[in-house]
Design a protein that fits this description.
Elements (H helix, E strand, L loop, with lengths): L6 E5 L3 H13 L3 E5 L2 H10 L4 E4 L8 H8 L7 E5 L4 H10 L3 E4 L4 H18 L7 E4 L2 E4 L4 E4 L2 E3 L3 H12 L4 E3 H9 L7 H15 L9 E4 L3 E4 L3
Parallel strand pairs: 1-2, 1-3, 3-4, 4-5
Antiparallel strand pairs: 6-7, 7-8, 8-9, 10-12, 11-12
Helix pairs in contact: 2-3, 4-8, 6-8
Length: 232
């Protein structure tokens, strides 16, 4: 089951935004910790039992991107970026570096809670052993039991969100999945219809599995509808 009293680390240097998030989290029963800079965040991630991190990118000592990369060297703890940077390339860079999700400021407490619940569900599912199932298309394959992805028989590092997206495609190989369906399956029904986050996640995944992301070999774009994993 999803931990009811999960511990959330809020990494934010703006007092007003930090207090808003801390209030919303405590209202929902989460245990909260806070850090106002990157060094404080890394120290607490190492020393405390934290279930999820809410991370601002514009920190006073180091950029939040550096925090993501550092944490991903040794931990798969869910990281949700909460940032005013709203460009697709910024979102793609954060997701590619290992962030699990990306919320653009300003945001509502409802959206924040929905993203956290989705991240915790993914965290729980990672701990549940599934029946071994291996899928392959061309040189791309996925082992749903071991949660591993291979490209040309070489293990490929993907983020938890990239893995969830790829697993969804393999389970529906050859089918066109609408953007709304993908968003609902990956982020949850309460996420809404933010296709920007989906495009950013897809861009990061394609850079890893495609030799030429501009002319994809595996995941095809169905213009105006969604995406499809080729079925050979």
């Amino acid at each position: 089951m999803i931990p009811v009293k999960a511990t959330v680390l809020v990494v934010e240097d703006d007092p007003q935004i930090r207090n808003f998030m801390l209030f919303a989290l405590k209202k929902e029963g989460f245990k909260t910790l806070m850090a106002g800079n990157a060094q404080g965040a890394l120290s607490q991630i190492v020393s405390e039992a934290i279930d999820i991190v809410l991370l601002d990118l514009g920190l006073p000592d180091y950029d939040g991107m550096d925090v993501i990369k550092k944490v991903r060297e040794w931990s798969d703890i869910p990281i949700i970026v909460v940032s005013a940077r709203d460009q697709d390339k910024e979102k793609a860079a954060a997701l590619d570096a290992g962030a699990d999700d990306y919320i653009t400021k300003p945001f509502s407490a409802t959206e924040l809670m929905a993203r956290i619940r989705v991240a915790l569900r993914h965290l729980y599912k990672q701990s549940v052993r599934t029946v071994q199932t291996v899928f392959r298309v061309g040189g791309l394959s996925i082992d749903l039991d071991k949660r591993l992805v291979y490209l040309d028989d070489q293990e490929l590092h993907v983020t938890p969100m990239e893995y969830a997206l790829l697993a969804l495609f393999f389970k529906n190989m050859g089918k066109v999945l609408t953007s709304n369906m993908i968003i609902k399956e990956i982020w949850g029904a309460g996420y809404g219809s933010d296709t920007q986050a989906l495009r950013a996640l897809m861009a990061g995944l394609r850079r890893k599995i495609e030799k030429n992301p501009g002319k994809p070999r595996y995941i095809m774009t169905e213009i105006g509808v969604g995406y499809r994993l080729v079925d050979e």
